[in-house]
Design a protein that fits this description.
4 helices, globular, DNA-binding, 177 residues
DNA sequence: AAAGTGATCATG
DNA sequence: ATGATCACTTTG
């Protein structure tokens, strides 16, 4: 399967978040082994105008990689113990990214990074050329469901309402709530 | 329901 | 230097 190229990553975050569902997140470990797992859940964070996006507070040391061109990894530590894996999208100097919230067998952003052994050492890694981490296109087009993003209670109501969380719509496998 | 955990950022 | 906050997970 072909790897996603720089050009693919230049799309905007909501578009790419949808497109990444069903694609394979690939990881080559130190020992040479390869992990290749389907992406099942993503979220888009779009620009300084998006009050849920880390870049809403402007360019800082932490958010610097969000301003890189699409295709770079943005990895940060949350709650002192969970590494979060994002893929930067769009052109350089426009901060937007897609959070990988789930892959098959590891539902939840902290579990994704644990499963694939991803940490801040991969921050700013370029997925268009990296030998350590990249994305391959999936086959077929899964049916996608959109819902509001998780864990962004601090954001403005306008942004909390945006349906920028993307999941594979599985038959009858929805959680009762 | 609530702790656990530490980087980050705004404040002083 | 200090303190609040946090794109979460696990345990009870």
């Amino acid at each position: 399967m072909p790897r996603l190229s720089r050009e693919d990553y230049l799309k905007d975050a909501p578009a790419l978040a949808a497109e990444l569902i069903g694609c394979f997140l690939c990881r080559r470990l130190e020992d040479g082994s390869l992990l290749r797992l389907r992406i099942t859940e993503t979220e888009a964070y779009y620009g300084e105008e998006d009050s849920a996006c880390h870049a809403s507070k402007g360019r800082t040391k932490r958010t610097e990689t969000l301003y890189f061109s699409g295709g770079h990894a943005y990895v940060y530590l949350c709650y002192g113990m969970h590494e979060m894996m994002n893929i930067v999208t769009g052109p350089a100097d426009h901060p937007e990214a897609v959070l990988i919230r789930g892959i098959e067998g590891a539902e939840g952003p902290g579990r994704v990074t644990k499963r694939l052994n991803i940490d801040r050492g991969l921050n700013a890694e370029d997925l268009a050329v990296s030998e350590k981490i990249w994305v391959e296109r999936g086959e077929g087009k899964p049916k996608i469901k959109t819902t509001p993003r998780i864990g962004i209670g601090y954001a403005k109501a306008r942004d909390r309402k945006r349906k920028w969380r993307f999941t594979i719509a599985l038959l009858g496998k929805e959680k009762s709530k």
